[in-house]
Specification:
With about 190 residues, this protein is mainly beta. The protein is about 0% helix and about 55% strand. The chain has strands at about 1-5, 10-15, 30-35, 45-50, 55-65, 75-80, 80-85, 90-95, 100-105, 110-115, 125-130, 130-135, 140-145, 155-160, 160-165, 170-175, 180-185. The radius of gyration is 16 Å and the shape is globular. The termini are far apart.
Amino acid sequence: MISVQSGDFSLEMFDAPDYTFGSVDNARKYDHEHLFDDAGSAFSKHGLVCSKDAREIGSAILGASGGPTSVTEHSLVALEGRCFAAVGMMVACLALPDLSLLWSERGDPATCFGLHLTPDEDALVVHGELEITKFSLSGEKLWSFMGQDIFTGKFSIEGNNIVAEDFESGWYHIRLDSGAGEQVSK
């Protein structure tokens, strides 16, 4: 579980693997069900609760296919009346405080490992398994970058560069403004 503060709102995100979309028999009820999968299956299921003064004022369950994900410190970002959540291969933007869906996009063909705001907080970078992708805050895909192997290693944003490590210990520098990148070591 992670907790994020956004102004007066507290957000908690947690794994909810036992939730069944569309069922009335779930132990926990949510205000919104956001299922991002045409086939109706979800390998990843994350609950999200928005509270103010320790009182719940919005809730949502998010589900997506792709590689299964667990909630980590980089699964949720909050900014200016909205939050961005990673679940499976999807990125969703939700309104605060009710957690209604503003937009959703595929963040990676396989799995989203994490979300990162750019230093100027004008865009969102998705650390995916197969791609590193930059989105505008309105959901427009600005660029994506693929490496020689999957990006399962370290990841950071340093100035105008993204530094990422792949499965074979290859290091990449990717320009934040353009997505142009190269492998710098193996």
